[in-house]
Amino acid sequence: MPFAVKDKVALVTGANRGIGRTIVDTLIAAGVKKVYAAVRKPDAADPLVDAYGRKIAPLRIDLDDPATIVSAAETASDVELVINNAGVLRQASALADDAVEQLQYEMNVNVYGLMRMAHAFAPVLKANGGGALVQVNSVASLRSFPPFATYCASKAASYSITQALQVQLAEQGTQVLSVHPGPIATDMADDAGLQDMAEPPTLVSEGIVAALAAGDYHLFPDTMAKQLWSEYESFAKNVVEARGSEG
């Protein structure tokens, strides 16, 4: 079910920096009517308001705080496109002393946060004609990297939830897009020590707009991601997406 972003009302979590900020820039350039810039601290959206004026509506969402998500869904009752970009990465191997604590934190934001967003905004999207939900996952959802194994585990879980959402939300006419970037030039990539292989965040943001317009379910936007997709595509098309089409 293709979805064109032009003249739509969008919401982007983690909108103030990194991939989220670039997504906002790309959506504005693509002609969206308004973007709810969802951030943990509303003043973090001030540079976006300075750049785009009334097209930006700052909105407080902390994926670690369920009450902010419920409140945001009540405020942003006109949303037609939800892009859940915000996430956290803690560098913890599976054998790290604090591995369980770090995984608990990453699960709460990266997985339970997605579920809370879906619970709160699925009815809003349905009321506004179906719309689209975009979840920014990662190549780490498909393979583990030992130095940050807990993050990979959380992203594998969020991808699994995304697959379930794709089936369920199709019933109300909502398109779901699962995005799987590799190293992207953001603070998160720097923290993970991947800056030497990181690619521009516009690959993600422009890829999202194009994938929504094409009605795609998966997006693997950068070099590392495309290499993984070349091996995974057959399984994804014949198993993951086929199950979705069966409902």
From TrEMBL:
Its EC number is 1.1.1.100. Pfam families: adh_short. Signal peptide: none annotated. Keywords: Oxidoreductase. It is an enzyme of class 1 (oxidoreductase). This is 3-oxoacyl-[acyl-carrier-protein] reductase FabG. GO terms for molecular function: 3-oxoacyl-[acyl-carrier-protein] reductase (NADPH) activity. Belongs to the short-chain dehydrogenases/reductases (SDR) family. The gene is fabG_3. InterPro entries: NAD(P)-bd_dom_sf, Sc_DH/Rdtase_CS, SDR_fam. SUPFAM superfamilies: NAD(P)-binding Rossmann-fold domains (SSF51735). The lineage of its organism: Bacteria, Pseudomonadati, Planctomycetota, Planctomycetia, Pirellulales. It comes from Aeoliella mucimassa.
